[in-house]
Amino acid sequence: MSLTLKEITDQKYELKSFFESFVLALPNMDVFREIEGKLTDEVLFVGCGSSYNLALTASRYFERVLKVRTKVFPAGEVAFEKTPKLEGKLAFLFSRTGNTTEVLLANEVLGRKGFKTVGITIEENSKLSKESDIPLVFPIKEEAVVMTKSFNMILLSLMFMADRISGSSVSPYGELVEYSERFFDISWKAVEGIDLKRYEHFVFLGVAEFYGVSLESALKCMEMSLTFSEAYSTLEYRHGPKALVDGGTLIFVQKVAGMDEQEKRLKRELESLGATVLEIGEDGDIPLSNDWRSAFLRTIPAQILGYQKASSRGVSPDRPPHLEKTVTL
């Protein structure tokens, strides 16, 4: 079995055990109390590639739930000091391997500016875990070049953390985790039912937290299947990018509460231009709660799509050209 496929499939079985053994225990950990004690009016989120998409998605939820201002930057902009003036006292830095050059440099820059840095990684012995002020190391094993299950598990953990700090209900997470195995199977069957040889253009649309999910979904398909893939805020797609729509375009829309009519009109418009449109969310082709908390499940269909499209093209998702697990400069 492909290593990438194994790690995509692992989520079907590991999400529940990860939630029960790690996520529910987070509030009792010292790192949770350190982060809670250092939250200020403005918090930075920094990462590269998938880790940037993860930072963006988590930042939107922190802002929504904790009522703090957040700023999100690619690590390279912080590392080489190309950002506007940075304010605040806490910064989350994301690097799956913990050894990404730009993230490590950003950690140094932010430390000099007086920030306390939270180093988010899955590698306990990485440079980031050793050099950040508050290392947050997730007990996740992921070896493939393409980031898949760790994106969703880390996102689940951070959203849960934000809700616990704010005093919001965390019961929806248990319900979503219980549904995750069924959601995986539904997603697999939905993608399997598509004649993927017809499509050479993938588009992912979503708003707010689901925009970050859409960016990550497009990246998965590019990395695994080498297929032209894009992501936009849902209604922004009508303002120019739809010029590329034709019969070879497959579009995924992340449904949200309160936009049913707009989503219906958009779907009709895009289908009239020849595209195939699938909706993820309540009453969608791939059913899922529209609660923002469901973000940690919403990249799974794209991960499956990326793998299956790669298989249809005879491309190995385990060996994407020009890519490596850790990017160093």
From TrEMBL:
Q: Could you list this entry's UniProt keywords, alphabetically sorted.
A: Repeat
User: What residues does the SIS domain cover?
Assistant: 31-175, 190-320
Q: Name one GO molecular function term.
A: carbohydrate derivative binding
The signal peptide, as residue positions, is none
Q: Which GO terms describe its biological process?
A: carbohydrate derivative metabolic process
Q: Which Pfam families match?
A: SIS
Coiled-coil annotated spans: none
Top-level division of the source organism's lineage: Bacteria
* Cross-referenced InterPro entries: GlmS/AgaS_SIS, GlmS/FrlB_SIS, SIS_dom, SIS_dom_sf
> Which protein are we looking at?
Glutamine--fructose-6-phosphate transaminase
Organism taxonomic ancestry: Bacteria, Thermotogati, Thermotogota, Thermotogae, Thermotogales
